[in-house]
């Protein structure tokens, strides 16, 4: 009968870590998906501050977003398309209310 509770069992049950402990400090490991979501939300904030048009900050964000988009999987892209649509509606709603 095989033993249970050994190192092999513990390894199988572990979930991937989202952070790494480095000398008493948690360091967040950002995935490509997380990075794109962060940029997407930052873009919405920048556009809300200056709704009149494009700016160098918007251009730089869009360039970075293009690079990150290329590194995403098809599933991540599909999920982010839904989030982009949701953010676009939220920004439009705020513009109408203002």
Summarize the structure.
Helix content is about 65%, strand content about 10%.
Characterization of the model:
With 98 residues, the chain is mainly alpha-helical. It has a domain at 30-97. It is built from 4 helices and 2 strands, in the order H-E-E-H-H-H. The chain has helices at residues 7-13, 32-49, 56-70, 74-97; strands at 19-22, 25-28. A two-stranded antiparallel ribbon has the order 1-2. A hairpin with a 2-residue loop joins strand 1 and strand 2 (25-28). Helix 2 packs antiparallel against helix 3 and helix 2 (32-49) packs parallel to helix 4.
Helical element count?
Answer: 4
The sequence of SSEs as H and E is: HEEHHH
Q: How can the largest sheet be summarized?
A: 2 strands, antiparallel
Across the major sheet, the strand order is 1-2
Q: Calculate the mean pLDDT score and round it.
A: 76
Work out the strand percent: 5-15%
Distance between the termini: 70 Å
């Amino acid at each position: 009968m095989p033993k249970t509770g050994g190192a092999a069992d513990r390894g199988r049950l572990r979930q991937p870590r989202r952070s790494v402990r480095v000398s008493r400090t948690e360091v967040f490991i950002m995935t490509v998906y997380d990075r794109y979501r962060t940029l997407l939300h930052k873009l919405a904030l920048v556009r809300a501050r200056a709704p009149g048009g494009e700016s160098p900050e918007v251009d730089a964000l869009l360039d970075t977003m293009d690079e990150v988009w290329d590194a995403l999987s098809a599933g991540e892209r599909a999920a982010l398309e839904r989030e982009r649509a949701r953010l676009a509606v939220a920004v439009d709603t705020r513009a109408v209310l203002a």
